[in-house]
Amino acid sequence: MRQAQLAALSGAPALVVVDVQRSFADPEYIQGYGADLPAVAAAVDTIAGLVTAARAAGVAVVWVELGSDPDRPWRASAWLRSGDPDAPFGPDEPCVLGTPGADWFGVTPLPGEIRVVKRGYSGFLGTGLRELLTEARIGWLAVCGLTTECCVAATATDACQLDWPVLVPRDATAAYDTDLHQAALHQLELNVGVLTDAAELTRLWKEAAA
Question: How many domains does the chain have?
């Protein structure tokens, strides 16, 4: 089954990089969360390698980033986290627009690469990403980034529901808890896409370009 799935991939691939930003990846920002810092660092390093490999293979690199806007707060998220939908942004609010927390960490978009800013979990919600990928004639996606159970899962799930075959490189994603990371990968494998790793994904890109 898995070999049939991979063999059936067609069209141009794209690498979608989700939320590798200081608020989610920089040890100075996440150490207070009890995060598995080595796992996050390893994933960021692997993502950086995949970005380099994608560019070398002529694969589109697509950047999805959180931009928390004080003038347009996500009230449902504030309610979920604090019980108050009108709670103002606190000092731990992630990726606030115009602050260092929103900066990319360990990876950097290049001019001309597709880049969208989201206000929620999924890179497809209210960003125009679907139209941009369609215009670029992208046939299948590899989704990586932070964190596995949250924004990676939401973006990969929406990609699948919008009819793109999805691969998830397990070594290019991370959660702050190892068990949560593994559980999220299991759910993604059951319902959303095919799990892979950076080495296999790079090989698939080379074969697609041949």
Answer: 1
Q: Are 17 and 123 in contact (CB under 8 A)?
A: no
Q: Retrieve residue 53's tokens.
A: 């490999």
Q: Looking at 95, 144, 150, 151, which residue is catalytic?
A: 151
- CA-closest candidate to residue 146, choices 23, 13, 14, 15: 23
Which DSSP state fits 32? G
Kindly write down the DSSP assignment for every residue of 42-84, as one continuous string.
Answer: HHHHHHHHHHHHHHHTT-EEEEEEE-B-TTS--HHHHHHHHS-
Domain containing 181 equals 2-209
95 part of the active site: no
**How would you write the pLDDT of the chain (210 residues) with one tens digit per residue?**
999 999 999 999 999 999 999 999 999 999 988 899 999 999 999 999 999 999 999 999 999 999 999 999 999 999 999 999 999 999 989 999 999 999 999 999 999 999 999 999 999 999 999 999 999 999 999 999 999 999 999 999 999 999 999 999 999 999 999 999 999 999 999 999 999 999 999 999 998 887
CATH code of residue 61? 3.40.50.850
Can you tell me the distance from the alpha carbon of 206 to that of 210, in angstroms, rounded to the nearest whole number? 6
Q: Which of 116, 142, 111 has the alpha carbon at shortest distance from 129? A: 116
